[in-house]
Amino acid sequence: MNERTIIGDDTEGPRLGEIGLQQFAPYLMNRIMGRYNASLREDLAKLGLTTPKMRALAVLSVIDNLAISRLAVYAITEQSTLSRALDALEADGLVRRTADPDDSRATRISITEAGRAAFETLWPTMRRTYNHMFAGIDAAEHAAFVATLQKILLNVRKHEF
């Protein structure tokens, strides 16, 4: 069985109406992430954060001191949107910009202690929402799901990371 056997080749196969929304993975992934983000909005608003700001803080809490271009990829945010979010985060003292020592054209972004504290305030809500998403899913199913998502990401990514 080759990799194309499951869904057919790129030019033929069932139409979306034949597949159905409940069987179309991109629709399901978007709907899930829409609900996940909506579940965080109230807590984000209390902290003066938006989804792009939260994503930047989340990434920087794990991988600090990133070039803006790389942070945009990890935060799944257009670079122009991220730049505006970083302006606000910097004004609030949650991140800091520094010149990239290896590339004079680039800027690196680091999370501050205040930024880490803001993210840690939000983390329990993120964790609770994550746990709710996976309620009734055992460890083996969860691991298989994450492994499948990682394979899909390898198929669609445009960057080496």
UniProtKB/TrEMBL annotation:
Q: Which InterPro entries does UniProt cross-reference here?
A: HTH_MarR-typ, WH-like_DNA-bd_sf, WH_DNA-bd_sf
Q: Which UniProt keywords apply?
A: DNA-binding, Transcription, Transcription regulation
Domain HTH marR-type, by residue range, is 22-154
Answer whether the UniProt record assigns the keyword rRNA-binding to this protein. no
What Pfam families does its record include?
Answer: MarR
The answer to whether the entry has keyword Transcription regulation is: yes
- The name on file for this protein is MarR family transcriptional regulator
Organism this protein belongs to = Mesorhizobium retamae
